Amino acid sequence: MMQTIMEIARHELITQWRSQTLKILLPLLLVLTTLIAFSHWQQQQDFIEAQTLWQQQNDANWEAQPDRHPHRAAHYGTMVFRIISPLSFIDSGVNPFVGNALFLEAHRQNSSSFKQYVSSTAYMGLGYLSGATIILVIWPLVLIALAFNSVSGERVQGTLRQLVSQGISVRQLLFGKTLAYSVISLIFLVVIFAIAIGFMLFSHVHGSDVLRMGLMFILYLFYCLLWTITVVLFSNWCRTNQQSLSALLLFWLLTVVVLPKMAYSLAEMQYPIPDRAVFDIQTAREIAKVGNSHDPDDPYFTEFRERVLAEYGVSRVEDLPVNWRGVVMQEGERITSEVFTQQYAKLMQIAEQQNQLVSHIARFSPYLLANNLSSRFAATNADSFLHYEKAAEQYRFNFIKQLNRLHAEEIDLEDDRAQKVSHEHWTKLGQFTYHAPTLKDESTRIYPPLLILLFWFVLGVFLLSRSRNEVD
Amino acid sequence: MKFIQFELRLLWQNKLFKWLMMAYFLVALLAIIWGQIGLQCEYQQRAISEANYQEELADYQQDAPLAPYDSGYMSYYLFHPVWQKPSAWSALIHGERSETTTHTRVRLLGLQSQLSNTATGNIAAMPIGKLDLSFIWIYLMPLLIAALSLNLLAEEKTSGRWSLLASQVANSGVLLTKKMLIAAGLLAVVNLLILLSAVMFTDIHFDGLWWQVAVILMAYQVCWFVITGWVISLLRSAIFNSLLFISLWLIFAFVLPGMAYLFQTQQQQPAEHVAMLFEQREFMHDSWDKDQQADFDQYLRDYPQWQATTAELDKPFDWRWYYAMQHMSDVIVADAVAQFRASRRYSHQIGEQFAWLSPVMRLQYSMNRLADTDMLASQTFLDQIADYQQQLRDYFFKFYFFDKPFTVNDFAGIPHFDYQPLGQSHIVKTLINLVLIGLFFIVLVLVQTRRNRG
After folding, report:
1. 3-class DSSP state for residue B83?
2. Which ipTM value was assigned to this complex?
3. CB contact, 8 Å: B95 with chain A?
4. Percent of chain B having pLDDT more than 70?
5. How confident is the model over B314-329, as a mean pLDDT?
6. Domain assignments of chain A as residue spans, ordered by start
7. What global pTM score does this model have?
8. Coil/strand/helix, residue B103
9. Which residues of A touch B113 (CB under 8 A)?
10. Which of B73, B122, B153 to mutate to test the interface with A (most CBs of A within 10 A)?
């Protein structure tokens, strides 16, 4: 049985090798993908370099500050520049759409600003042009173009009847054809990844990046296999070549283009997210509900004062061993940060609800599932961006806390504003070191889409193996 | 007339044709309704921010009249909402509106750092994008046209009617053209129905803009029918036709837009505009460590309209100096902001030039302009915010610099932001572009027909 399948695959490959479609499409797509991957790699390296330089300049500026009041330094703040994943050049994920510079200051939580480029991405309605898009969106079309008539053609020409009469079952034929087109996909992917590895050798690569890249390769191969099975099955089910082609194109259009867009539009309508202005208002209102550190009669801060006075066993703020203003500043910072984190979590929860709804619909679109996994493996998905922002907020809070401590301990309450602390303090504040989540951390997010993809694969193989010997 | 009746009856009997048309109409209707719901959501958000703004003003009003020191505080805490008010058409043509913040709040501080805050939407949705009516028109309609007409000839041949028909008329090409015209006419009727539904379900009016959209939509439709006609004129198999058509569609809708983006980004340095934020921040904070009186004197020399103020600053802190330095922090980065603006415009321009090669891109640029949802609109919004801040400055500075108390009546005079759309449309350019592409393919058809006869 295995030998027959191999023989069919070999025969199909020879036929395809001689056909014009493959001769034109494969080199064309390889050249296009390589060119795009090369430009993206170059842009990625330029961007990483630019971000590193900005970070260095920011750090140097921070340390070069003169003697200042710590609260002035807290308002001066600092900036962190996100370094994108070295696999962005294959799957750019959300990178072209988000800001990459984050200004961290006292009292306020800013959002990431400044996209890598100012150009609009809105004109790429079928998807951002990248290696991953070519593999996930365009390659299925190539498979359709190559294989839509792989079985229906044999049937229409009557060769299927001959094959069956020679003792070859339709099932063997389908597996053989599937194998042949999988080999073509494999060749395509191997060439692309060989080139990509070449690029990677020129950059700073960690072991985990190699693993991630390996996973991407396996994912893409698996995705191509799924499409190959789909095309061969459709070709077997349809009576004519034209029918098979039309049905496959429609299937592609629905699962790759229409369904994903529909899913996100529907989710957005179902769970609307407050816009920038309303979000800022909601946060400000929640903070005001707790207390206003600038209001001397504020009930929360009056009670807070009593508590601090009791803690130190004194009756007046002037008698505190620490600067009362610095203590209030830190309490205010704690409240703002806490409320902001809560409000932001609410916002993210709505986004999560949207994504949940999409993930339900995604069960029917292998493209969405693979797209989700691909950007996760590449560490370019929305989660990795949000993880970074969260870590930066944590850093901001600790950073401002250290400055507030300086305020409380090094500045006297009397004539507070006129005093300064030595610039030597600035170098003592730690810099932001970001640790991206590992694949292990994300495993609970990886398994569900992977399992659904596996389900489709098993179903596909099952359908292939249950195909009956119908020759007409 | 009989021919038309016959063909119509034939089409009506064709199940695929009926189903496709119906699906197209229903999906379009759905997109209209979703778009309108989204637009209403934007209006609701706006109502929330306006109510909050009025509430805050009322709070301050209770304490009026405010001494200049207190009204200085007010300006520090008072955020004024600014909104890039969406046009009625943005419900159908979302354009670039998700890419930038369209509704935010600004106060009397350095503007650029306030404008760099990004939108709050679900970023996971961004790479996939929205299903709005413009997507259906621009990307999916060409496929519908192909499905309706690409295999007219092939089907007739299979059914055996073709040889009969072709023998009855002298020119089979004319017959085919007539058949395509009927399909095109029916699609045009459906598109008009969609446009009329838009008037019914959204705030769109039956006005000049409606006609402009209708005209470019019809031109776009004709353009794709001509492209399909060329594919048919090659007289190849139905399969070859489908593959060639889908390749053309991919080139126009995926490869060219992607290449255009790549080309645009190659003209830029990554993250080059961060300098804007950097410089503003450095200036703002350095000013605290510098001779404040000297800086203030310089400011009064640069802006003589405020010279009548008391030249000496209050100690330890004076709002006049504070807001003057905030203003100067914007002046310092004016060049960087102008560069950012030029960079955006240039990038948009390159994209538009690429659009000459692709009807898909052209229609999208054109529609986004008509709906005021493109980069030009977003830049106009930013420019108008800068103007608005100048109005706020002019208004509030009078109280701070001329030592006037802020009375109850002065609240009514606070300038209000009202976005004015750019009001340009590129309809002529669009029509010329579509006609040129159409003509190109008509020439190809004619050449091919001659070759077929020869």
Report:
1. strand
2. 0.90
3. yes
4. 95
5. 91
6. 2-465
7. 0.92
8. strand
9. 103
10. B122
